[in-house]
Q: What sequence folds into this?
């Protein structure tokens, strides 16, 4: 399986210099409704029963997370709540309503899923985004920046001067 990514530039918070980063590119959103037609092939239950089970599972996970519990889904991984917190010098001035922010769900995949991801996925560049301009490829970006064309045959520019072949 090949995952697409785009490259974008942003300031590195540690060095304060502009650096290139990869960002995963999702080709489309898959909803659980897509699973309704696939799951019954492996199980003796119909689409309606499958939908009901998945909806109940989603509601169950939400309820447990809100209670502060960690939820393990066999074959997939574990979900738990986390948040960001601002710091204070004096413990007596800590106000949870003001200091705790950005509540979010953390997902930790199971080892079997991690193994699949580590061993069965490759990556392919699907463009560059720089200063709100989207380029179809690294070669197109380099051509625009340097006023010359660069082949897409694995050639890259080193130190903005020398063209090398990978």
A:
């Amino acid at each position: 399986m090949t995952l697409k990514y785009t490259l974008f530039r942003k300031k590195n918070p540690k060095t304060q210099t502009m650096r290139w980063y990869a960002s995963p590119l999702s080709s489309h959103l898959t909803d659980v409704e897509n699973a309704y037609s696939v799951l019954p092939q492996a199980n003796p239950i119909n689409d309606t029963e499958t939908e009901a089970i998945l909806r109940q599972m989603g509601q169950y996970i939400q309820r447990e997370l809100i209670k502060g519990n960690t939820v393990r889904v066999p074959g997939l991984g574990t979900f738990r709540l986390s948040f960001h917190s601002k710091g204070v010098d004096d413990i007596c001035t800590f106000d949870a309503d003001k200091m705790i922010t950005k509540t979010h769900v953390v997902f930790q995949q199971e080892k079997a899923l991690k193994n699949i991801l580590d061993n069965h996925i490759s990556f392919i560049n699907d463009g560059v985004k720089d200063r709100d301009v989207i380029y179809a490829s690294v070669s197109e970006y380099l051509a625009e920046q340097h006023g010359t064309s660069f082949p897409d045959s694995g050639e890259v520019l080193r130190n903005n001067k020398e063209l090398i072949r990978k």
